[in-house]
Amino acid sequence: MEADIRTKCILAFYEIYPLSRKLVFDTFDKKKYDVTRTQQIILLSLSMYDTLTMSQLASRINTSNEQATRAVAQLVDKDFIVRMQDPGNRRVIKIKLTPDAQVFLKKMKSDIRDDLVKRFSEVSDEDMELLYNSLVQVDSVLKKVIK
User: Fold this and answer.
1) Element (H, E) at 52
2) Do residues 80 and 96 make contact, with C-beta atoms less than 8 angstroms apart?
3) Sequence-distant contacts of 124-132: CB under 8 A, at least 24 apart
4) Is the pLDDT of residue 1 over 70?
5) pLDDT tens digit sequence for 101-113
6) Mind listing the pLDDT tens digit for each residue in 76-102?
7) Which of 93, 87, 88 is nearest to 55 (CA)?
């Protein structure tokens, strides 16, 4: 029975992931923001941490170090990310958002939130409460799995 419910959960992720990704990225307009989706994911990921190494970033966004490095280089050119050497290990490069990136992210998140609020406007308050509570529970369980 335990394996059965775990399998059902995994299959549900296969259904939910593309839907949630589409919901968020449908609100993203490359021309409006002048960043690619990969760059957007990097900015959103970095907004959750003070600094990350390139390996940590690549792992968090599920891409190769090479792809992450290319996208970060473009964000450095846009003055959205700064690179710093780790004082404890000069071979390790850490990255961090700039104040310009913080302002950009605040605006982008606000725009996306406003668009999503409109998209959910036809959903009942009861369904929204159920969705919220479910998402909080999913977040809690996933944090136990992804350490």
Assistant:
1) strand 52-53
2) no
3) none
4) no
5) 999 999 988 988 8
6) 999 999 999 888 888 888 999 999 999
7) 93
Give bridge partners of residue 97 from the DSSP assignment: 81
Residues 6+ apart with CB under 8 A from 143: none
Question: In the block, which residue shows the tokens 């479910």?
Answer: 134
Closest among 98, 131, 108, 94 to 41, alpha carbons compared: 108
Q: Give yes or no for a contact between 106 and 69, defined as CB atoms under 8 angstroms apart.
A: no
Token pair 């913080």 is found at 102
Q: For 70-138, what is the HEC assignment?
A: HHHHHHHHCCCEEEEEECCEEEEEEEEECHHHHHHHHHHHHHHHHHHHHHCCCCCHHHHHHHHHHHHHH
- Helix 99-119 vs helix 37-46: crossing angle, to nearest 10: 110
